């Protein structure tokens, strides 16, 4: 008779197998572990970027967000019908309404920086940011997209665990955290870099060493330090290959490493993004990229940094008692504690467990979203099947890919007065039709450049022309205010200059974007 025990499946692993499995689990977990001080620094960085963004936009608030500007609600509703009803900022075209919403966004950005009701404040900040972006997508670039993605990912991680009002009220902190949400937070920038490296590989310039040279020959985009690097072609080629290696090798440099080595690589990326910030006018992108690197700063980095902080500063850190009325636990925590004291401990335990499970589920979904739609964009597949294009495009990262542009352009507006003379619509006198000394100065902000690119696209044959016509009407009003005589017509020109990659300029080309009677 066969021994029954020998026929039973063996379910227990050997001690050696269990040890190996635990080692693998520990190694994987350590790769997706984030120091809570890094999460706190990320919170402060994101809040500061949100505040800076609000301040930066205020100067053009009337132009881009009100009915008195170049993009009134009527134009918005005609050009982006998919966003109708999704923007709080589109509820009114009045200036005071936009100013109020900007003020509210600024207040919540400050609250995020100090870490007061962090998750709630981050959620409201995200809603306000999405609303602002939906109101005028024409002024956005990849940095805006990455900012809202990072804010969403940060929302499901404990960014209020340290260095915050919430931390003082809680009284306890965890040194590190690891979850699907932190995995998504770490994977996101790697996906940005890897996808961009793949898209660049489809071009002819980056993997031949010429990408940086061509990119910096674009006088509209190149600023400050970038204006001086063109004199050193050998250095430009070195920088090109360093940039390509950082992009293509990001998975190994940032996800495979751990400890001090990971922190060193993160600092190298931060240094590269500081260089980008001082060389190229791409808006918030370098700042947000710097923020994405903060979670990669590991515990050894923060321990080393702490040794350089003078004790006189740490001794002055506030305590919970200094918060006054704010020192009380959040309303929901007080409600749970009250329920426990009334004998509903099982209910409160279930509520807390379900809350943690919900965050885990959201983290899993976000990680899948990042990987799936990034892959879709890389293989150039629309992946629609009922999925909104905007949702897929949230994970498209094509800055300077596949090749940097070999030309740049700026715009000029000419007004025809009732006496038949033509003048610069904004400044009077004759409209300048020659190449400026520094073409980057032709735009007040990068958002103006993005908006005028949308005007250019709208003015092309086969388009609805709404954005171009709306802008031309606004130019008419501005020209009427600028000149004593009545304005009969305005004409918007686009002036195109081939990039002087080899140091020589070709002839300037002028294109008419739109002519419109006033």
TrEMBL record:
Topological relation to the membrane, as annotated: Multi-pass membrane protein
Any single Gene Ontology cellular-component annotation: endomembrane system
InterPro entries, A to Z: HTTM-like, HTTM_dom, Sporulation_signal_mat
Membrane-spanning parts: 38-56, 95-114, 176-198, 238-257, 264-297, 358-379
Any matching Pfam family: HTTM
Limits of the HTTM-like domain: 31-301
Primary localisation category: membrane
Compartments where found: Endomembrane system
Keyword Coiled coil: no
Top-level taxon: Archaea
UniProt entry keywords in alphabetical sequence: Membrane, Transmembrane, Transmembrane helix
SMART domains, A to Z: HTTM
Keyword set includes Transmembrane helix: yes
Basic residues bias: start-end ranges: 8-18
Region (Disordered): 1-20
Protein name per its UniProtKB record: HTTM domain containing membrane enzyme
Native source species: Natrarchaeobaculum sulfurireducens
């Amino acid at each position: 008779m066969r021994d029954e025990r020998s026929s039973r499946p063996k379910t227990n692993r050997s001690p050696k197998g269990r040890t190996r499995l635990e080692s693998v689990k520990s190694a994987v977990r350590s790769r997706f572990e984030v120091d809570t001080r890094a999460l706190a620094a990320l919170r402060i960085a994101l809040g500061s970027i949100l505040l800076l963004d609000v301040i930066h936009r205020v100067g053009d608030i009337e132009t881009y967000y009100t009915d008195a500007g170049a993009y009134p609600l009527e134009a918005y509703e005609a050009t982006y019908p998919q966003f109708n009803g999704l923007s709080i900022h589109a509820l009114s075209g009045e200036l005071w309404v936009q100013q109020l919403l900007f003020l509210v966004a600024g207040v919540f950005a400050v609250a995020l920086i100090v870490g007061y009701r962090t998750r709630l404040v981050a959620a409201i900040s995200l809603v306000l940011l999405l609303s602002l972006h939906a109101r005028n997508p024409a002024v956005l670039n990849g940095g805006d997209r990455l900012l809202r993605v990072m804010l969403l990912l940060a929302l499901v991680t404990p960014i209020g665990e340290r260095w915050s009002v919430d931390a003082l009220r809680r009284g306890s902190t965890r040194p590190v955290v690891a979850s699907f949400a932190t995995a998504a937070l770490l994977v996101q920038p790697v996906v940005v870099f890897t996808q961009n490296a793949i898209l660049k590989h489809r071009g002819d310039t980056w993997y031949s060493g010429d990408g940086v040279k061509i990119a910096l020959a674009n006088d509209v985009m190149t600023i400050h330090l970038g204006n001086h690097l063109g004199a050193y072609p050998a250095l430009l080629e070195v920088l090109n290959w360093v940039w390509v290696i950082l992009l293509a090798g990001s998975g190994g440099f940032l996800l495979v490493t751990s400890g001090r080595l990971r922190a060193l690589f993160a600092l190298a990326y931060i240094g590269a993004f500081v260089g980008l910030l001082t060389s190229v006018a791409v808006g918030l992108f370098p700042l947000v990229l710097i923020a994405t690197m903060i979670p990669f700063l590991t515990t050894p980095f923060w321990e080393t940094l702490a040794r350089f902080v003078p004790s006189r500063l740490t001794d002055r850190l506030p305590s919970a008692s200094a918060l006054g009325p704010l020192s009380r636990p959040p309303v929901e925590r007080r409600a749970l504690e009250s329920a426990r004291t009334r004998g509903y401990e099982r209910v409160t335990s279930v509520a807390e467990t379900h809350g943690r499970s919900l965050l885990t589920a959201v983290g899993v979904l976000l990680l899948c979203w990042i990987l799936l739609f990034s892959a879709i964009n890389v293989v150039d597949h629309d992946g629609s099947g009922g999925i909104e294009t905007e949702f897929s495009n949230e994970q498209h990262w094509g800055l300077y890919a596949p090749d940097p542009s070999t030309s740049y352009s700026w715009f000029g507006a000419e007004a025809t007065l009732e006496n038949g003379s033509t003048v610069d619509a904004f400044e009077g006198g004759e409209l300048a039709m020659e190449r400026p000394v520094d073409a980057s100065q032709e735009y007040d902000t990068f958002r103006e450049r993005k908006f005028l690119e949308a005007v250019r696209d709208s003015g092309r044959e086969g388009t609805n022309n709404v954005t171009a016509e709306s802008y031309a009407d606004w130019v008419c009003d501005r020209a009427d205010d600028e000149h004593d005589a009545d304005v009969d017509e305005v004409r918007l020109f686009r002036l195109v200059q081939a990039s002087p990659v080899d140091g020589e300029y070709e002839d300037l080309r002028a294109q008419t974007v739109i002519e419109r009677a006033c």
